[in-house]
Amino acid sequence: MSRLADYFVVIGYDHDKDRNGSSEGKILQRFPETDWESCPLTQSIELFCRPIGWTLSAHRQPPEFFVAVLTDIDADRHYLSVLTFSESVAISPTKSDDGDTEEESALTIHSLMYSPKCLVLVSRLDYFETFKNCLGIIYTAYVDKLDVQLEVLVGNILGCVQVPPPGGPQVRFSIGAGDRQALQPPVSATVPSSRNVTALLFQQLGIQNVLTLFCAALTDHKILFHSQSYSRLTDACQAINILQYPLKYSYVYVPILPAPLYEVLNTPTPFIAGVHSSLADDTADLVDVIVVDLDGGSVHIPECVNLPTLPEPMVSRAKKALTMVMNADLLMADYAFPPPSPKKPPSLEQKDKEIRAIFIRFFAELLTGYRSCLTVIRIHPEPFITFHKANFLGHRGMVDDEFIVRVLEGMGFGTFVAERGTPYRSCDIFDEVYANIHEQLTAETGDPEKVMENIKELAKLLNTNESPNPQPYVQKVPKPTDGAYSRIHQAPFPVLESLSVHKILTEGIEKHNLKSKMNLRPIQVRIVPMGTPITALVDRQRIVDNNARRLEVLRNCINFVFDNKISDARIIFPAVLRALKSRVARLALTQELSYHIRSNRAVLEHQQFDLVVKLLNCCLQNDSSMDENGVAAAILPLATTFCRKLCTGIIQFAYTCVQEHAVWQNMQFWEAAFYQDVQKQIQQLYAPQYEENHVSDKHDSYQGSPTLKNNELNVSKNCSNGHGGSQEKRSSYRAREIGALEIAAEQLRTWPTLSEGRKEEMVSNEESTVYSQAIHYANRMVYMRVPLETQKTIKTLSPDWESTSNSNIASSLADSESIDAESGYDEMEICDVGTNVIKFVTRFVDKVCNDSRVTQEHIKSLHQMIPGVVAMHIETLEAVNRESKRLPPIQKPKILKPSLLPGEEVVMDGLRVYLLPDGREEGLGGNMGGPTLLPAEGAIFLTNYRILFKGTPCDPLACEQIVIRSFPISTLTKEKLVKLQYTPHIDQLPKEGLQLRACIFQLMKIAFDEEVSPDDVEAFRKLSTKYRSPTTVFMTFAFVGQVVPQPSAMLKPVEKNASLKNFAKKTIMKTARKAGIAKQKTPKRKYVLPTPPMSRRSMSPRSSAGSDSESDRPASEALDDLSIIDEGEFGRSWSSDPKVIERLMERPGYQDYVRQGFGDPSDVTLRGKSIDQFRISTVNSNFSVSKSYPALLVVPANFPDDSIRKFARTHRQYRFPVVTWRHPRTKALLLRASGFHGRGLMGMLKSDPTTGTSTGEISASLQQERYFSTIVAATPNSMKSYKPSYSDSLTSLDSLMLSGVQDSLLVPETPEVVRRSHPTTGSMRNLNNPKSSFLTLPRRTARTRSAWQTFSRIGSIREKPRMNSSSATLDTSPAMLHQNGGVSERSDLLHSSVQGLKRVALYVLGEKAQMKGIKVESFPKCDFIPVDFYEVRHVKASFKKLMRACVPSAPLAPETGFLKLVEESEWLLQVQNIMQLSGATVDLLDVQGSSVMICLEDGWDCTTQVVSVSQLLLDPYYRTIEGFKSLVEKEWLSFGHRFTHRSNQTVANQASGFAPMFLQFLDVVHQIHNQFPLSFEFNQFFLRFIAYHYVSNRFRTFMMDNEYERVEAGWLMDDRRSSKINHDQSDLEGGFVPFARHQSNQGMSIWDYIEKHHRKTTLFMNFLYSPTDEDAVLRPYSNISNLRIWDYYLLEDLAHGPAYEIETTNKEIQISEEEKTDSSGQPLLRKIVNGCYDNVLLQQPNAFRLMLQELHKLETDLGHFQQKWKTVWDKLELPTGKRETMHRNLSFNTQIVKSHGRSIHKRSTLEILVKGKMLGEAAKMFSQPHRFEKHTYTTPAYCDYCSQVLWGLLKTGMHCTDCGYNCHEKCLSHVPKNCTKLKIVPDSSSSSANVSRASDTSTLKSEELPVETGPTYATYTPTTTATENSCLHKGYLFKRGALLKGWKQRWFVLDSTKHQLRYYDSEEDTNCKGFIELFEVQSVQPIRNVQGAPKKADENAFFELKTSRRIYNFLAADAKTAQNWIDRIHSFI
Q1: pTM (predicted TM-score)
Q2: Cis peptide before 935, with omega less than 30 degrees from 0?
Q3: Looking at 1508-1562, which runs of residues are DSSP E strands?
């Protein structure tokens, strides 16, 4: 029995403190006046009575009641029931401090105010309704003046009402005011009473919000409620508390928090609290608190709070049931005839109980099986039981479920285990539900209606718990009369007489003492039901994949090991390792191994020991550090049992080899394992007393491994694992074993009946058991924690243990609790390992022994024992470690010697390594199929040419094959150390890992064997770096085996001995006179000026830090000093020796000039008089004009050399335009040059103080103009008509124009589908200024609905259904065009823009930045077209990404697939860009007949690519092997592509980064080859061979940066030539000493090698080559969908390494074929070809090669003379009799397709040209977004972006309502913003209006359509605005200066002609003060809150203009003007 209330307190307003300025309450009276001993009165309860503060009110408030909750220091809750009412109080204002008495005296009026007064009952019981009644009666007696003494009421409440404990009878009482009350204790003390609070909470917040709060409370988050009502706050907090039953909330719980204590909410601990809504605004500062608005029904979760999700399927089940309870009529809501609603809807109380029932079931399901994971440690004198968390999570499969993990780690669950773990106690509702939940859920699965039945049944039980009496007692409680509280004359609450209260109180207590002697009903205790064992919950599906076959393999392998059949065990070992990924197999392994333990030491042979250790390591690394499956616990006894004998008296146990796993660092694991073993010992202690269990474990024959006892697993029958508690039912063949909890329950039941002696004996036995087990575990921990090498810490402890560990353990130390003193970071700093182990073990001993109540004496003795054990163990291990290193090495595969090339030598002999799999799927078996070739075991060799791995696969099933992976050392781009993942098949787990990446798309991921010392690894790395980066190219493999030449110091000045000085002086003077230069004091300047550093930096705007401009050139490059070469260096050899020039002309590149008919330079006397218009000039024969140019150049015949020298300076690097190819039919010329200098053509000269005067500048400029005019004159007139190279009439750009505009193929009645078909795709990116992108679909087809709407609308077929479809011309009627949407303005814009494309003899394609400063009028009949191209830096970045995509170092993530990575690399876009520029060049030369000059960057990268590809497309000669050789020699080698620099061939070039410009060119050739396979004499292997060897450094061909350096090296002259060149100076160190060297040092040319092999074999031959059947000019498609990823990037041949090393490949194939014989020794006839292993091209020859081989074999057999294959092939002829029949007439469709392809090609050309011409203002019309809407197509249509079909019935597409653009929904994000909706304003005054228009090229007459150059986007309306001049917009604006400057008014003019925003001082000012280039503008937008703005400025009138350089701020007169400016500028960006 206990008191109803402990205290009654009256609290009132403190008027004394009010006078001092503070408002507080104070206790007026309290009863009893002294504290009870058991519960003193809580301090500061007056704060909780008025939570928002004590204040006076002007109005009388009605009485209020609420309950506040306080928690004392012992975590007991005290309930404050508070009834508050108002009392009147007279307030007279006091005098103010200023002493103004007269005024004060006039205001001395008493005002009536109301102060609060509180009646408080303090109780430890939660009978809220009774408290409310009692306080209400006291208030009624006071306010209604009842005839009853208040003292009697208070005394009775405190002393006379006694409440029985839970389970007791109902109490009926009266407190003496004529009342009748009843009080009913609940049936169970542990089940909380809820009234209706949970239902109320669900009503307020909804289901999802409450579940969120429920989750937050369980996972220890902070929750804060706020409401206007205090009662609602208390109810809500109580509801969240009750919903957690059976768990108890253990943190701060303050349902009503007073305002003064608000700071409590900043506590770091979790809490549930409530505050009044008036404080809600302050919650914004609480960053990690979940705030709940009860009145508004909302829950705010801060961003930093991460709530876990409630686990499925429990939460879904709960949600469904909650919906049924809260919305019972939901299922009937859709009924047409719903049943009548029940007369009595369910009450809130009923809903409350049903909700609670759902949550109790949720917990029962969540915690199912928890009793199986309870571990009994002690039974007597008090039970101590722990919970095996890891076991529970493992069996339930919830290891990764964040919610359940956090619940189990919370304090609430710890209390739950402590209270409910005891097996013998009183049970409540939860225990009953838990026992039956599994069966209930199983039954409900079949019958869903049972769910609500079971819930309602449980709700009844809960209701009965609160109200056990079925008949309610009618209470009588007096209440005050209505409005009593508002009476005016109400006396204040009287002061109670304390003596009378105490008297009644004392009498009541005495009576209670008499009653308490009466016996109450005892609490019933019983054995707690076990519920469903956790092993019964294992999902059967999880067991299925561990089928009997796998476990059988496991058992066989272990049997093989112990029977010493090691080879058999190794064969099935990989399968066992794979099987060990499953939990059941790991447990089965531990059990199988335990069967083989015959004694306490199972001594094994060395190989047996290694295999067993590997199995144990594999088990541990597949498990987590939590050990949720009990694998580590089962391995503990095995690791201390298996051992091997190293020598006499020294034995090595398995634990020394399995220490490197995180689980041994996890203190929680050790505790759980210890408790498990203690439980088994306790079981054995008591088991014999019970007759049921006499069966002990027969397999457990030694004390040392008790863990095995309960880990029995019936492997053959797949029965469930019973680890963690033996109370589960065992498999049928074992006798039932009584569980530990059952033993404990029985012991607790009989404990009271035992004698004291027996009790003491039992306590002593248990204590000894725990103590002995603690000793045992202390030893085990020492074994597992002290490493074998005691000087080192266990690797797992280091912070980056993954890099060194031989295991792949996913979890980290963070999972462990022991991270303070024992963490890896601390241990690494302490040298003495023993100290750390002692700390760790001592901490463990303290924890478990104190928990298990071991006596202090025992704990002390343990502490003394541990250091001794550690010291002895360390001493033992030193001997073991010493002996283990002396073991004979395990037999490893023999190191295979690699096949080497002639001259190749091994620099570092084979280091034994494992070749590990990388991110490529090939060779791994798996999804790709085939054998598992990787990982492979072998050796890595470093030769003077390659890094080479040769070995055999680790997989025994594939180990007969040989795996070779190699790459040339020169291609190594990156090496780095890597952390290794555990890999199957590898016996010893490696420690070191190295990743080598090569630019030939190869990757080696190697792990060094244990026998390889770190010194060897370091030596390997250093040597590979040395050979990768030689100081000169002469140290590369190309010159191996020969005398390495000492190259002359190219950059050093010539030695100043007399003979050389005299010789140089003569030559200099002679040359100076020739050049017409006056005598100068500085003879070394001569006639070519050095490039000044400034001009080099300002060559182009690309020269930024990230660019690849020449300013970052290494110091050792010859090209660094671009000053003049002294002619004296070359002596007379070049300029005067015709034989030298004759020899030069024999080079393939120069022979090509002769082939084209450019004449012969040897006859010097005929210069200028040649009949031909061109000559081969020797102006650069001594490299005096440009070092990077060839010695012989083709220039116009009548242009003198002196003039060339002068104007060469106008180009970067002096690379002036030279002719490189001439069209045989149109005689149009292809020229190449570098870009013009950045600051105008003469910019570089102005920066050099030593240069001549301005006359020199003018001279150079004039010479340049003359040169250009000479080129123009040499180009035949473009008006002349030529016979086209194919049969259509589109011969010029006029026809190009029409072809591009109107998709007319001149085929009558062309079907509509063909006319719209197949656009190309892709996106040409403007790299210099992404914002100014003009046409983003350069290869747009002639479809009438294309993105290039400006063109297609002009000749639209689809838009003009009334026009004749066969018409090839445009409609003549402007009205018709206007009918079609006002096309006239747009077409006029186009025509005005294309005017410059007509009648031009020379097109100069250059960079945008260079084209701006050119005065076009100085170059008649020339057109300068700015084009987009990719710079070197973009190619570098793209190549890196491409390599990562094609050769990833790790498996790709699912979201980043291979194709996505290739797309992101933008490599194909760059290939496309080259093809497009080359295509435009082809069309201009072939169709237009105009000459083309390519002037991009320095003229040696992108220029070379475009020029080379253009010639390849135009000239069939270059598509032969001989022609391709001359093309590469001429364009790439002679014209100075910087191979050494771009390929990083020397150490000086390493920093610049690998730039594969040549590889990109080869990729383009490969793309063309794919599309035109009949047009090339060489095959794809030829291209791949060159791609491989241009970086391999095997051949000298692709070395050095230019011809000048090759001349110095002596390569260019034929090797057979004599050394006459320097015959008189061969003894000098300077000059060209290498010329005089023996020819053996010259290295080999790749062309000689190819020629030699081509003569012998068909390796490079394309048998499909058919030169006559194909057009001479190729026009490939360049859209992305037609491009292919080159297989060179993806192929790999593991059988022999790269097939491009032909000699080694043949050797390896020969070796492997010799080995493959059948049993009789005959070679096998069957050959298996595996994709990534064999080279399909070599292993599976095509029919031609096979027949030629057979022919060769027959000739050999018959003894005939063997003919060369080429001779045989050339003899073959087509059958003459059938030649006519083989002629194919082109079908109608074929003609359409051909013509269509050409049309696409020409359109692309036109786009590039027009885009260049329109780059200014007009191009901006193509930067407008479309307005897309979904559209269903009734007929097939094509996507204008990707050209795939759009079909209406299956797919809907997107259709632009403005311009009619169609595309897929998936293409939407890629579509260019070039909608042509906006109207263009005609501008009659435009400068282009004067350009003559050829009326014969178009039927649009010029007088009808005014010409216009600048678009005006005035409005979106279809009407055009008035005509304006080029000034599009003007007006005054305020502009803010640069940083910290003020605002100034300026007159701004938006000029559409110059595409600038210029500004002046005023409107009248004529001098421009500055301008902003509009193409640099990135955005323009309004801004606000501008700092430092002028006063009275409209804040909406500011706008910001952002350019690539800086940000400008403007201020307009008003917001409207500002918006107008923004709109105008917007139309340009």
Answers
A1: 0.55
A2: yes
A3: none
